[in-house]
Amino acid sequence: MTAIADQTDPAPDAERPLGLSLRRGLACRCPACGQGPVLRGYLKLRDTCPACGTDLTPARADDGPAYLTILVVGHLMAPFIHWAFVTWRPDPLTMALLLSAGCVALSLALLPRMKGMIVGFQWARRMHGFGAEPGHG
Ligand SMILES: [Zn+2]
Predict the structure, then answer these.
(1) SS3 sequence, the chain?
(2) Where in the sequence is the domain holding 89, given as residue range(s)?
(3) Residue 70 Cα, ligand 1 centroid: separation in angstroms?
């Protein structure tokens, strides 16, 4: 359906800055206007932006947010575990409890931001019919 979407896009070549869209997504804001929240509740994607009306239904984040969250949390926590063990030598139970809590907290904080970022990426690159919404090309 990409060909149909491209035909209805009023400005198929209009630039959608990727960096700006990613930053807006990281803030869980609409990639088009940067104002409206893209998520309802913790992770549920809204159908439209409440501020500008951009259709958000073409977004297909799937497992992307979880993948990116694991990637970031792993790369942050693995060196921290090494550093914490070498520096403090905590007993195993203390270390396991503190690092588990840190991993969970960091993951919960990052997951919706990664989802917003993926929606921003897909919008900026006109993936999955994101080029088709009238008035926001
Ligand atoms: Zn918007």
Answers:
(1) CHHHHHHHCCCCCCCCCHHHHHHHHHCCECCCCCCCECEECCCEECCECCCCCCECCCCCCCCHHHHHHHHHHHHHHHHHHHHHHHHHCCCHHHHHHHHHHHHHHHHHHHHHHHHHHHHHHHHHCCHHHCCCCCCCC
(2) 2-129
(3) 28
> Residue 6: pLDDT band by 50, 70, 90 thresholds?
very low
Q: How many A from CA of 95 to the centre of ligand 1? A: 43
Residue 95 in any domain: the answer is: yes
Q: State percent of the chain over pLDDT 90.
A: 82
- 15/50: higher pLDDT: 50
Query: What is the distance in A from the centroid of ligand 1 to the CA of 98?
Result: 39
Ligand 1 centroid vs 84 CA: distance in angstroms? Answer: 42
Q: Is residue 135 part of a domain?
A: no
Domain count within the chain = 1
pLDDT band for position 37 (cuts 50, 70, 90): very high
